[in-house]
Amino acid sequence: MSGILAMNAPRTLEIRGLGKSFGGIQAVKDISFDVRPGEIVGLIGPNGAGKTTCFNLITGFYTPSAGQVRFGGDDVTARKPFHMARLGIVRSFQKTNILKSLTVFENVLTGHYMEARQPLWRTFFPGRAVRETERTVRESAEKIVEVMGLAHRMDTPASVLSCGELRLLEVALALAAKPEILMLDEPAAGLNSLEARQFGEILRTLLDGMVRSVLIVEHNMGLVMGVSDRIVVMHFGQKLAEGTPAEIQANPRVIEAYLGGGKKA
Questions:
Q1: Among 76, 117, 130, 247, which residue's beta carbon has the most beta carbons within 10 A?
Q2: Alpha carbon separation from 227 to 41, 98, 238 (Å, rounded)
Q3: pTM (2 decimals)?
Q4: Residue 150 has what pLDDT?
Q5: Its domain of life (predicted)?
Q6: Can you give the residue ranges of every domain in the chain?
Q7: Using CA atoms, how far apart are residues 168 and 151, in angstroms rounded to an integer?
Q8: Which residue stretches of the chain have pLDDT < 50?
Q9: Rounded CA gap, 111 and 230, in Å?
Q10: SS (HEC) of 50-98
Q11: Is the Cβ–Cβ distance between 81 and 110 less than 8 Å?
Q12: CB neighbourhood size of 36 (10 A)
């Protein structure tokens, strides 16, 4: 599979001592970890552990009370979300942002707005450059739809998609922004076991040219354990553990705090 990612030098996302307080409540405290090129990192923890807040801090939706976010060695702490997206850090959301009245293809096409936008006068006098951009954007949208396993739904209105197909379309919209790091916030929510397994298979293929790395928040342990190279566990806003899926599954502190008090296979 040939990719669509721009061929800039691979960059590491570094989170150092990240913290956030809301009044007297410490939602995130002293979180540090890396997301390196070529890997999928899972971020897990019980409800209220601070995972989504951590996402919001990394992507500029919240301003940290402490700590730093670096990307490729550059300090990008508290950059605005649209700046982060232009840098190549793009996230999905728990709540759908699909345009239900549009088809699958049209939804993904709208996700290319940063690449496709033109000056107003170009609308009335489109030249070769505009036509070439339109062709490139349409080809990119078609490719993303195919990679996400939705080619048979290309011209289907989003309003009639299943829950699983909508989740795939949400990721396709994020891919349309051509991220270097794709950040997914509970992408398997509402999926059955078969859909979650299929989603995991697709997710691994994205590292083959679509994205350089993935950071995923997920409650589906089968999915996150199956696709992640490393896992970071949060508990009460702090990092409880970090390691491979096997190491996390065998960690007594994680078992006690998150996995239910018994060792998981």
A1: 76
A2: 9, 25, 23
A3: 0.86
A4: 94
A5: Bacteria
A6: 11-88+179-265, 99-175
A7: 11
A8: 1-2, 116, 118-125, 261-265
A9: 29
A10: CHHHHHHHHCCCCCCCEEEEEECCEECCCCCHHHHHHHCEEECCCCCCC
A11: no
A12: 15
Question: Per-residue DSSP letters for the chain?
Answer: ----S--PPP--EEEEEEEEEETTEEEEEEEEEEE-TT-EEEEE-STTSSHHHHHHHHTTSS--SEEEEEETTEE-TT--HHHHHHHTEEE--SS----TTSBHHHHHHHTTHHHH---HHHHHS--HHHHHHHHHHHHHHHHHHHHTT-GGGTTSBGGG--HHHHHHHHHHHHHHT--SEEEEESTTTT--HHHHHHHHHHHHHTTTTT-SEEEEE-S-HHHHHHH-SEEEEEETTEEEEEE-HHHHHT-HHHHHHTS-SS---
Q: Please give the CATH superfamily to which domain 11-88+179-265 belongs.
A: P-loop containing nucleotide triphosphate hydrolases (3.40.50.300)
Joined tokens for residue 154: 């290309």
69/62 Cα distance (integer angstroms): 12
Residues sharing a CB contact under 8 Å with residue 150, sequence separation 6 or more, in sequence order: 104, 165, 168, 169, 172
Place of tokens 């997710």: 203
